[in-house]
Design brief:
InterPro entries: ABC-2_transporter_component, ABC2_TM, ABC2_TM_bact-type. The chain is of the alpha/beta class. Helix content is 61%, strand content 11%. It has helices at residues 2-16, 18-39, 69-79, 97-105, 119-136, 166-193, 221-251, 253-258, 264-292, 300-328, 332-349, 376-389, 394-423; strands spanning 49-55, 60-62, 65-67, 90-94, 111-115, 155-161, 206-212, 360-364, 367-370. Helix 7 packs antiparallel against helix 9 and helix 12 packs antiparallel against helix 13.
Length: 428
């Protein structure tokens, strides 16, 4: 049977080409791991939401004692847990408003809660009016304005975040429910402390309002994804560079260049220059396309210039990765396959298409450091979002640029070393 002979032949060829077989089997597995890590919550059904709290509350005097209901609310938010679970709903960071805004922009916080200066006075008014209504046997009706008498104090808690970010939508929804429950609990405590109460309905002295970070109110999910697409394009340079370097070896060009006593650094650094121009062109071209697709650009021409600089640094990282791939690839086809195997999962790992779960390992220079931050393209992406999406200047991206630059230099040195060891040695 001829078809059996063909089947045996093809099976032997597939097994013989182990690297291609490795690519075919491993590539889908990498996607499964990445998506499982991002959306599977690593086996947990609930996860805490990162919340930055800005407490302006000045406190008040109640029954002769100085109290601060803003501190009380912050503590409550840190203690509240999911129903029938030991998992806390929120990871609380108490900070100032400027830092809170920056945390939300960098996705270090899903949302921020701003407690106004008169929050304690509002809570005190709520307690007082509830007690009076209960002891007098009358009911105080809920109103939408919360201003029915001159001696009441109404406060508005502000829930702020990136309205185009899915994580903010989830967090603010939970937070609104918790805040409503907080007011109800204040009323219940007063009612339970007075004998014979019948559950007077409270006036809404404590309200909440949801708003976007200044300048982001009209943002969409695309405004968050667009810089990620730029980083994905920059990462794809690694596949092209790996294929071209491998072709240089296959065609004998590299052998002839070695005869001219050319050093590894000359050969590889010389290739960095034109590819850096390609990286800069990618940033500009994709930026123009994003604008045409409705990207809400912030920061003016300065942000675009900064984005090009950041893109070039990210491009050098990709070129360095291409060197490493070319050091191990057998031919151009295998270099392309291996490059794709590495680049696509790497794009997901740096958060180009969606936000990955928090994996904080510490802080450095006032910045939260996560596992992903040791990948240079993560810092490239953070900087592009900070300047293009949020309109930040040099101060907003300097840390990410510095981290990206340091990691790029390290990756370039590794790339030069490996390519030199495998491809630039004199042939005996």
């Amino acid at each position: 049977m001829k078809f059996m002979s063909i089947a045996v032949k093809d099976l032997k060829e597939i097994i013989r080409d182990r690297r291609s077989l490795f690519f075919i089997l491993l590539f889908p597995m990498m996607f499964m791991l990445v998506f499982g890590f991002a959306f599977g919550n690593m086996g947990e059904s609930n996860e805490p939401h990162n919340l930055a709290v800005v407490n302006y509350d000045q406190g008040t005097t109640l029954s002769g004692e100085q109290v601060n209901f803003g501190d009380n609310l912050t503590t409550l938010l840190g203690d509240v847990k999911y129903q029938s679970s030991d998992v806390h709903m929120f990871n609380i960071t108490e900070t100032n408003e400027s830092t809170a805004n920056q945390m939300v922009k960098q996705r270090d916080a899903d949302a921020e809660l701003i407690i106004p200066a008169n929050f304690s006075k509002s809570a005190s008014s709520l307690i007082t009016i509830t007690a009076q209504s209960v002891t007098s046997g009358s009911s105080v009706l809920t109103t939408t304005t919360g201003q029915n008498s001159s001696n009441t104090s109404t406060s508005t808690l502000i829930i702020r975040g990136d309205t185009g970010y899915m994580g903010f939508g989830t967090t603010q929804g939970i937070l609104v429910g918790v805040l409503s429950g907080y007011q109800d609990q204040l009323v219940t405590n007063v009612q339970n402390s007075i004998k014979g109460t019948h559950g007077a309905e409270p006036q809404k002295y404590i309200q909440s309002k949801v708003e976007g970070i200044p300048g982001t109110e009209s943002f969409t999910s695309f405004d968050f994804i667009a810089p990620g697409m730029i980083v994905f394009a920059i990462l794809l340079l690694a596949t092209s560079v790996a294929a071209i370097l491998t072709k240089e070896v296959e065609s004998g060009t590299l052998r002839r260049l070695k005869m001219s006593k050319m050093t590894s650094f000359d050969f590889l650094f010389g290739g960095v220059i034109p590819w850096s121009f390609v990286a800069a062109a990618q940033v500009i071209i994709l930026f123009v396309v994003a604008i045409a697709m409705g990207f809400h650009w912030q920061g003016g021409i300065i942000s675009l210039i900064l984005a090009v600089i950041v893109g070039v640094i990210g491009g050098v990282s990709s070129i360095s990765l291409g060197m490493i791939i070319a050091a191990f690839a057998r031919d151009a086809k295998q270099a392309s396959s291996l490059g794709t195997l590495i680049v696509v999962p790497m794009s997901f790992a740096v958060g180009a298409f969606f936000q990955l779960p928090q994996a904080v390992i510490g802080t450095f220079m006032g910045h939260t450091i996560q596992v992903y931050d040791f990948i240079p393209w993560t810092n490239t992406l953070n900087a592009l979002r900070a300047t293009l999406t949020y309109g930040g200047g040099w101060n907003a991206i300097s840390f990410d640029v510095l981290m990206s630059l340091i990691l790029t230099v390290i990756l370039f040195v590794i790339g030069v070393f490996l390519f030199s060891r495998t491809r630039m040695r004199p042939e005996g």
